[in-house]
């Protein structure tokens, strides 16, 4: 009988534990259905990390402020070194070094470093034996030198058609030609060392690089460009056009323009500069052709309406040596034309000789060289003709007609393209302003239609104006969306890692965790007097101030602290705590003093990331709990309410299992205690019953006597 009773008790005990176990599982399963979907999305999270790190390896993050006064975060890991057959094999190497340079004078420092390399022997050793990266600084600056040499040939090749250019200028030109030819020859050597991409990786095998270069069109152009046709200049120095093959090298100028457009911070201004340069080159060459045709036809004509260049069209200017008063014809410096002005039929050309005789001793001639006068007038004619402005004398010969027709075609096609490019640049430059005006007009119409108070209307308009002036209309996510996650992460690291590492809460954390947190930062802009959070609001964000000023305010409105650039607020809110360490509400308010640029890190994003870092999660929770107490030597055990926080499904089931085991153990102990105590009580009751049966008559008699004595 006792055995059957004990078995029934055990079945009842197990049934109770099973009910508790099942109830908890169902509760948390329903609670975490959404989190299972999020965890599935997180399975590929590490594929997008900024750097491939091994979180299992102990790491230490240090800050170094010595190198070029730039903050440099260095992650040092312990490498396991194993020796086998006198060879050292390094495992788990993920030494990571992240340079976060200061933005001040960054470009000047970069150029200075490049030119400083030119005076080091190691630079030339690397140049001889190492491949050249097409996107590197060396290749960019070298392309600049080659472009200057190309521009030199474009300008000076045709300049010798004018007078007074030969002589000392010719000798300097010869030396310049030698330097440019040396640059072109060296460029062939450098071109044969440029690595290229194949199957996504750079080819650094010199033989393969040379073979690819030799079979390219660039090699053919480079060889033809250095053919020494100009050697005949030593026979006849007027044959300057023999260097026309050097213009085949001008394709390198296009490469420089393309790379500068990607590097410069002012792409529109640079494009306008290139268009001006192209116009200048076209005017320059066309002016030279015009002057050559004029020389072939003769330049001694005194007819100012002649199509060709003549000396009378561009005479030296005359300046008076006395004070000229055009209203005073009686003074020493005025030629009296009163009588002649009355005669309307008399033209000035009729008495020009008389005027010249009068002014002969009262003026001086500003002498200019023939080259200056020839080039200026030819360039002026070229600019008017190519821009199809017209108003030029009619051509008189077939070669003049051909030039006019060619200039008309070039003017219509080339300059139509140039004008279109300028229009595109102008419209692109005004696109942001047009978008700003569109948004501003829409908001103003909305506020007026909804009868918004004028004070708020003014505040909204001021905020939109600030956004436009500070470039706030650009969406960072859309701007960087086409970049791979790795490059987005590198940009985020450069912007925020220094600030994030400076937070005490994140010191000594794994780099992978820090990089993942940096990627989750969202940019938000606040207007003056805006509250980022009020007292009593849900504490679910961490704020990082990048620009502007913020102030913390207590419940009475008293300002407690002013936060400046780089400061953080609410770092203890990124993980939810329970029990006496509850941090669900904001204890202080955070207000923007002026316009502020703030990056926000949300708790939900941190929770998802911490699921992949269990050790760092516990460390972070410990630091936050420690923040709320003075001496935090003991940390409360995990309870059921912790299951929906930062743990994964597997970890939550482990916690549930531990809780159920503890609960089952407690129930078993309580049942055993109850069983033991109930047995003892039963024995006592049985003993009392036996004693009562034996003495019941005496007890009844005694009870009766006691009642009678009372009455």
TrEMBL record:
Q: Which PROSITE patterns match?
A: CNMP_BINDING_1, CNMP_BINDING_3
Which SUPFAM superfamilies has this protein been placed in?
cAMP-binding domain-like, Voltage-gated potassium channels
One GO molecular-function entry = intracellularly cGMP-activated cation channel activity
The way it spans or sits in the membrane comes to: Multi-pass membrane protein
Q: Which UniProt keywords apply?
A: Ion channel, Ion transport, Ligand-gated ion channel, Membrane, Transmembrane, Transmembrane helix, Transport
Where do transmembrane segments lie in this chain?
Answer: 139-162, 174-194, 214-235, 272-293, 408-426
Q: Which CDD domains match?
A: CAP_ED (cd00038)
Q: Does the keyword Ion transport apply?
A: yes
All copies of domain Cyclic nucleotide-binding, residue ranges = 505-610
Could you name the domain of life of the organism this protein comes from? Answer: Eukaryota
Q: Which residues form a coiled coil?
A: none
Q: What is its main location?
A: membrane
**What is its subcellular localisation?**
Membrane
Quote the cellular component terms of the Gene Ontology held in the record.
intracellular cyclic nucleotide activated cation channel complex; plasma membrane
Protein name (database record):
Cyclic nucleotide-binding domain-containing protein
